[in-house]
Structures are given as structure tokens and as C-alpha cells.
Specification:
By secondary structure, the chain is an alpha/beta fold. The protein is 37% helix and 16% strand. It has a seven-stranded mixed beta sheet with strand order 1-7-6-2-5-3-4, sandwiched between helices. Strand 3, helix 3 and strand 4 form a beta-alpha-beta unit. Helix 1 crosses helix 2 and helix 5 packs across helix 6. The longest helix has 26 residues. 40% of the residues are buried. The model has no long low-confidence stretch (mean pLDDT 87).
């Protein structure tokens, strides 16, 4: 069994550096089109809830969000030099096999300090339609009281690239659409409260995704 890890707040400077690096790379390799970034509150704690169809979705959001983002990233990515790099960029390692208390504590510390937490609420790559929401997003929203901003990343999983099949086409357009912030309340974290919050989140996120697809004229990412 893996030893328990101490709770630490990821470095804000690392997230700032990560945003600058991601911005340079993303805008060089692809052609991101960012819509509604002004909807992200300029200060205070914020949760960005992002659909997830491709491995580049996290870096794309880091390079296009108006504020530095601390993402919850699966522990499998934190190996060797990549793990060191991710920690240096202020990202949070999470064990998806169970309730990772250290990751939960680190994420809450980010929000308590007025930072931005990035979450893939379905927990892993899917068709990106927010249909299989897990309870983690609702827990963080209820526990912190932070507003949730829905984000649709569209185009990253449409088709493979010709040069590198595992990546979207070079200089291809990727749309990043930010929605209006909303809250699901705070304080109570009973099973019923989590279920109700998860249902509300699913409705708001799917509605935003539908609007984003219509606005960008992207029927689907699959």
C-alpha cells in the first residue's frame, strides 16, 4: 500500500511559469480560439470544470485560461522527469483508485488561497459530454463554496495529426469556450447534498457544452 503523503499547497509561482510555457507551446503548435475568457473571475477561488477527450486538453487549457491553473492529474503521469516537471509547474498528483486525502487537501488549499483549480469531472478521457460525472467536482464546489466555470475544449479529439498521429493536426484549430460561473452552495456535504450538486453540475455543464458546440459549429469531438 502506498504511504500517505503530506498535504501541501502547490506553488503559485510554478503555476504561473506553467501557464507561460503552455501558452507559448500551444499557440505555436496549434491555433487555439478562446471564447468567453472574460467570464472567469479575475480574483478569488475558481474551479474550472473541463470536458476531456484528448491528452492535450489540460495543457491547452493551461495555455489559454486567463489565470494560472492547478490541475488534478493522475498519479501515473508523475513518473521520472515528467513527474518532477509537473510538480514544479504546481500540478497536483492524485490517486484515482480511492479517496486521495493528500490530493484533496492540496486542491482545497489552492482554493483557500484564492487560486484556480482545474478538474476533469468525469475523472478520465471520455467522449467529452459530461455524462459520467463523478462526485469529486461536487465535493470541492460544496466544501469550498468556490464558483464553477464550465469549459468546453473542442477540436482536440476530432482527428489525428499527419505528422504525429497521437496529437491533433499541427496548426489545427482548437476551440476553448468558457461559460458563466455558478455556485452549488456550500457547507453540507451529505450524500444527498453531493448527489443533488452533481445533478445540477451535470445539467449546467452539458448545457454549456451544447451551446459551445452550436456556437463554434462543432457537432461533436468524436
Amino acid at each position: 500500500m502506498e504511504a500517505a503523503r503530506s498535504v501541501t499547497r502547490p506553488g503559485a509561482r510554478g503555476a504561473v511559469a506553467g501557464r507561460r510555457l503552455a501558452c507559448g507551446v500551444i499557440h505555436t503548435v496549434w491555433r487555439p480560439r478562446v471564447l468567453g475568457a472574460w467570464r472567469v473571475p479575475a480574483t478569488g477561488p475558481v474551479i474550472l470544470a473541463v470536458n476531456h477527450t484528448h491528452n492535450v486538453d489540460g495543457p491547452v487549457l493551461m495555455g489559454t485560461a486567463p489565470r494560472p491553473v492547478h490541475f488534478l492529474i493522475k498519479k501515473e503521469a508523475f513518473t521520472g522527469p515528467l513527474g518532477t516537471f509537473l510538480r514544479g509547474m504546481g500540478q497536483i498528483r492524485v490517486d484515482r483508485a480511492g479517496a486521495d486525502r493528500a490530493a484533496i487537501g492540496s486542491a482545497l488549499a489552492v482554493l483557500a488561497a484564492g487560486g484556480v483549480l482545474g478538474i476533469f469531472p468525469e475523472g478520465t478521457r471520455t467522449t467529452g459530454d459530461f455524462a459520467a460525472l463523478r462526485a469529486g467536482l461536487a465535493y470541492f464546489a460544496l466544501r469550498s463554496g468556490a464558483p464553477v466555470v464550465p469549459v468546453a475544449v473542442l477540436g482536440s479529439g476530432e482527428r489525428p495529426g499527419r505528422v504525429i498521429a497521437a496529437l491533433p493536426p499541427l496548426r489545427g484549430r482548437i476551440d476553448v469556450v468558457f461559460g458563466d460561473p455558478f455556485t452549488v452552495g456550500g457547507g453540507r456535504r451529505t450524500g444527498a447534498a453531493l448527489d443533488a450538486a452533481t445533478d445540477r453540475l451535470r445539467q449546467r455543464l452539458t448545457a454549456h457544452l451544447k451551446d459551445a458546440r452550436r456556437h463554434t459549429r462543432r457537432a461533436s469531438d468524436t
